[in-house]
Amino acid sequence: MTPSWTKRLGSYGIWRQGSDLDGPLAAHLEHLGFGSIWVGGSPSGDLVLIEELLDATEHITVATGIVNIWATDPVVVVASYRRIAEKHPGRFLLGVGVGHPEASGQDAARPFEPLVRYLDALDAAGVPRDELVLAALGPRVLRLAAERTAGAHPYLVTPEFNRGARELLGDALLATEQHVVLSPNPQVAREVGRASLHNYLRMRNYVTNFGRMGFSDDDVAGAGSDHFVDEIIVSGDDDTIRARLGAHLDNGADTVTVQLIHAPGEDVYEAFRRLAGILGLS
C-alpha cells in the first residue's frame, strides 16, 4: 500500500449512499475522527457531490465507492478528476468498477476486458494509478487492482475474506466495507440488516462471492439465513462491534469502510457519534 494512503485513510472510514450525504454530515464525520468517506450508489462521473463534500471539510479523504464504468464515459471522469485534484490535492481517491451486471443495462457477462479498457483510458489521460482503486471480489480483479491501481475496495465481505485478498494484493491497498447495525437485539438487527441485503442476494457477482467465502446455497436463499446475516452484518454490544471491525484489520485490511445501517427516522448524527465512541475515535 502507498504509505501516504495509510495515513490519509486511517483505520476507519464511512461508506454511505451518495443520496444520504451532504456537506454538514461530512464535516460531522471529519470532526468525529473518521479518516475517509466513501460515496456509494454509483455516484455520477461529474463528481459534483464529491467536490461538495471536500469543500465542506478540511482534511478527510473522500473516495468513490464506486463510479460505474458502464454509466460514465472515462472522458467525463478524467475531466472531473482533474478538477478535483487541482482544487483538493491528495484528498480524493477515485474508485471505479463494473457494478452489478443486472443493473448495468449492458452485456456485462464478461466485464473484465471492458474494465481493462477503462483503466487504459484513465492511464492514457494521465490519471495516476496510485489515485485509483478498483471494486474487486474475485481473484482476477483483485490481481488487476494490485497491478493497475493503488488497490482494492471489496464490498460485503467477512474478515476472513481479507486473508486471501491480501495474498493476491501484496502490498496494495485493501479497503474493506462492513455493514454495522447498532442494536444489541439480534432480531431487530437482522430485520434492519435483511432490508439492506435484499438486492445483493439477487446479484450473481455477490452470490458467487458468498459461495467463495463458504456460505451454502441455503444461506443465500430467500432473505438469507440467520447465520449468513450475522456473518455479513455485525450487531450486538460495543465489544462485539469493535471486535468485528478490528478483525478486518487483523486479517489484512488496511482500512475498514463502515456502512452504518439504521432504522428510518433515527438520529444519524448521534448514531455516528456513538460509532466513533465504540471505535475510540472520540
UniProtKB/TrEMBL annotation:
Please report the name of this protein according to its UniProt entry.
F420-dependent oxidoreductase
Matching entries from Pfam families are given as:
Bac_luciferase
Q: Which residue ranges does UniProt annotate as crossing the membrane?
A: none
Source superkingdom: Bacteria
Per the UniProt record, the source organism is Subtercola frigoramans
Q: Which InterPro entries match?
A: Bact_Lucif_Oxidored (IPR050766), Lucif-like_OxRdatse_MSMEG_4141 (IPR019922), Luciferase-like_dom (IPR011251), Luciferase-like_sf (IPR036661)
Luciferase-like domain location is: 25-251
